[in-house]
Amino acid sequence: MGVVVSFDEGRSDPEASLTDLVALVAGGMERVNGMILSRTGSDVAMIPEVANHLIASGGKRLRPILTLATADLCGYAGGDGAVKLAASVEFMHTATLLHDDVVDESEMRRGRVAARINWGNQASVLVGDFLLGQAFRMMVEVGSLRALDILSAAATVIAEGEVMQLTAAKNTETSEDEYLAVIRAKTAELFAAACEVGPVLADRPRAEQAACRSYGMNLGIAFQLIDDVLDYGGTSASLGKNVGDDFREGKITLPIVLSFRRGTDEERAFWRRTLEQGEVGAGDLETARAILRRHRALEDTVERARHYGAMARDALALFPNSRMKTALLQVVDFCIARAH
């Protein structure tokens, strides 16, 4: 069983695990980026200002990369369809980030001041809505009813996940199954949809579509679980937001679920005070980290992530060996390595 000893020293470089995939889809991503820039244009000046503040702030564009990669894996050679769907996926993701920051009252995103701080909550929500509208316009232009169904269904599930998270917020008695249901909907569903539309465009058999969806779903769960760990054991640079934001916002994540279940009455009282009642004082974040370490909550969350990563790998066993398949398998390494 792996043990997370330090999150700040002696870190491996997770970016190395993305190098091959980024190189393989570089041409397609150049077209995606061009389309993203063109589709954020508007006569309403605030729209491109807000949208580009977040879009241009970095981020790995992992979800659109996965759309291009799975389309290539399945032999798609049909023109702009994959590019438009990849841009749609990125717009959907960006819209959810804009909306999330309003709901969570976040101050940072991708290492920069959140858009809501500069332009206000109303502008962030409305520009997010604009991006969703543009995403659906591009989906329609592709002309695949099945792809449109997958991504529109994903938008619904993501919204459901956000509401589920609201009901679980500050509830320290949230179970592991309940929490996993939240992240399947809120985070992993878009990974799954981004991967599933590739083989759909290539008109591949349902078995291959299901395999790519399974890869994306399990990868997305692993990705979110590692994010949960990084909020308590990472750095602001690696996380793209302030470390401890989940704690300060009263979010119930898997490390909390595990440590609450395993803890003493005194420790559970600490979680209720800080997370349920929102009474967070000086030194409480360090106390939280100490409790998490005492019960191996961070290490065991990483182990859960490895489990889902293994399922993502297995999902691609259906496909013959290729450079693209190898690169997609390395993405699992990237997701897990962020915690080391």
TrEMBL record:
Supply one GO molecular-function term: prenyltransferase activity
Instruction: List, separated by semicolons, the cofactors it needs.
Output: Mg(2+)
Q: Which key words are in the record?
A: Magnesium, Metal-binding, Transferase
Any single biological process term in GO: isoprenoid biosynthetic process
Q: One matching Pfam family, short form?
A: polyprenyl_synt
Q: Where are the transmembrane segments?
A: none
Q: What family is reported? A: Belongs to the FPP/GGPP synthase family.
Name the record gives this protein: Octaprenyl-diphosphate synthase
Q: Which organism is it from?
A: Methylobacterium oxalidis
- Give the gene that encodes this protein: ispB
